[in-house]
Structure formats: structure tokens, C-alpha cells
């Protein structure tokens, strides 16, 4: 299976006052198309930094980031913005839904940047909501939904543009165990049944078990990869 994400000698350094702090040190990593990779490691290990680089939310200090054959580390900020819109869906710990909009209108938001008609945007949002099990909740606002349902809306919003890559940062970190397992099961189905490539940061070993493999980071270095049976 070909690599969708290809990282070589990736580093990231931040300037904190007079001091330079290297968060990632020479990361080499391939994530195959159709993989579900969990990123784990202690606080400060560089998990979210690596996730943000793969998703084009940040740029490396050095090294190569190739996603689906495109060198995103060479893109301008404008090109990166368009690339993210076309190819990446994001799911965060705190759902980031617009409280005044219905679930359906929240899901439609990424489509406002496309040339789709209002009717087609509505139809695509309905399909995405049905896929996450919320066909009958499209007219509800976030305050009328449980935390798990809100995260399902956020996932529907992330997949409505049919992205190549799903980037998930602690997607179950704000949920109770039952809701978390439902969300993880949904992500697993999107991976297995719909071929979505997923990279997920989590601190929860049980959450990582839903992935096809786990990547362990420590002090900015990739120290272990574990394949799941």
C-alpha cells in the first residue's frame, strides 16, 4: 500500500524568548493510504506539533512533508489554506461548532468555499449527518445535542468535503467512556468501510486500540511503532 503521508528528517523549533526549543527531532515516518494511526506520548512529546505539521496547520523548521504526492512544506500560506480546504478534515477535542447554527448548517460550513449550489450543500450535509448516525438531528442546534452528538456533527463537518486525510486531536478527550467508544467506533468504520486515512492524537491507550497501529513519541523523537492485530 502506498504512503499517503511521507515525512523525512522533520524538525520543528520554537523561539521562546532568547531560547530555541526543538520540539521535533529528525522525524522519519510513512503513513500508508487507508491507515488509522494513533499518536501517543507523554505531555510535551510533540504529538500535537506533529499532527499540525501533517495537517498543514504549521510549517516545519526543516525536513520534508509530502501528502498524497504533494510537498506541502514548499507551499505558501495561501496555497496551504486551499490545500487544507480541499484535502483535510479536522476533528478537535472541543467540537468548535457555531452555537447559533443548526447541525446541518454547521456541517455545510466547509462547503461555503466551494462552487456547490445551496441545494447540493444541503444534500451533502444530510448525507454526512446520516453517515455519522444523526439523520434526524439536522435541525438541532449544538445546545440541544449531547457531547457525543456534537462530536458526531463535528466529524460530519470534517468529512462532508470527502477529504483525503482526517486529522483528529484528542477527539474523545471531552467525552464520557460510552460516548468516547461510540466516536471511536465511528472513526474506525470511516477508516475500514470508507477508506479514510486517519491520524489521531490520544492520551488514552484504549482509544489507540481502535487504530491500525500506534506511533509513540518521546521528547520529539519517534521511539516505537506498534501494529495492531
TrEMBL record:
CDD domains tied to this protein: ABC_MJ0796_LolCDE_FtsE (cd03255)
Database matches in Pfam families: ABC_tran
InterPro entries in the record: AAA+_ATPase (IPR003593), ABC_transporter-like_ATP-bd (IPR003439), ABC_transporter-like_CS (IPR017871), ABC_transpr_LolD-like (IPR015854), MacB-like_ATP-bd (IPR017911), P-loop_NTPase (IPR027417)
UniProt GO MF annotations: ATP binding; ATP hydrolysis activity; transmembrane transporter activity
Keyword ATP-binding in annotation: yes
Lineage top rank: taxon: Bacteria
Recorded coiled-coil stretches: none
Gene3D superfamilies: P-loop containing nucleotide triphosphate hydrolases (3.40.50.300)
Keywords attached to this entry: ATP-binding, Nucleotide-binding, Transport
Residue ranges of domain ABC transporter in the record: 5-229
Gene Ontology cellular component list: plasma membrane; transmembrane transporter complex
Family according to the record: Belongs to the ABC transporter superfamily. Macrolide exporter (TC 3.A.1.122) family.
Name recorded for this polypeptide: ABC transporter ATP-binding protein
Source taxonomy: Bacteria, Pseudomonadati, Pseudomonadota, Gammaproteobacteria, Lysobacterales
Amino acid at each position: 500500500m502506498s504512503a499517503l503521508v511521507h515525512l523525512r528528517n522533520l524538525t520543528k523549533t520554537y523561539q521562546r524568548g532568547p531560547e530555541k526549543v526543538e520540539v521535533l527531532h529528525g522525524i522519519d515516518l510513512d503513513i500508508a493510504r487507508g491507515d488509522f494511526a494513533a499518536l501517543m506520548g507523554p505531555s510535551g512529546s510533540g504529538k500535537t506539533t506533529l499532527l499540525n505539521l501533517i495537517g498543514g496547520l504549521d510549517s516545519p523548521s526543516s525536513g520534508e512533508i509530502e501528502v498524497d504526492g504533494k510537498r506541502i512544506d514548499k507551499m505558501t500560506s495561501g496555497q496551504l489554506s486551499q490545500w487544507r480546504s480541499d484535502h483535510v478534515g479536522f476533528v478537535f477535542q472541543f467540537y468548535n461548532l457555531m452555537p447559533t447554527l443548526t447541525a446541518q448548517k454547521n456541517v455545510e460550513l466547509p462547503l461555503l468555499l466551494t462552487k456547490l449550489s445551496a441545494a447540493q450543500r444541503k444534500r451533502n450535509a444530510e448525507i454526512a449527518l446520516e453517515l455519522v448516525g444523526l439523520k434526524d438531528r439536522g435541525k438541532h442546534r449544538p445546545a440541544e445535542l449531547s457531547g457525543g452528538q456534537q462530536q458526531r456533527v463535528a466529524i460530519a463537518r470534517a468529512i462532508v468535503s470527502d477529504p483525503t486525510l482526517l486529522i483528529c486531536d484528542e477527539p474523545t478527550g471531552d467525552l464520557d467512556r460510552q460516548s468516547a467508544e461510540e466516536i471511536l467506533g465511528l472513526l474506525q468504520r470511516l477508516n475500514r468501510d470508507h477508506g479514510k486515512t486517519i491520524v489521531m492524537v490520544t492520551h488514552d491507550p484504549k482509544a489507540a486500540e481502535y487504530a491500525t497501529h500506534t506511533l509513540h513519541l518521546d521528547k520529539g523523537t519517534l521511539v516505537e511503532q506498534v501494529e495492531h492485530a
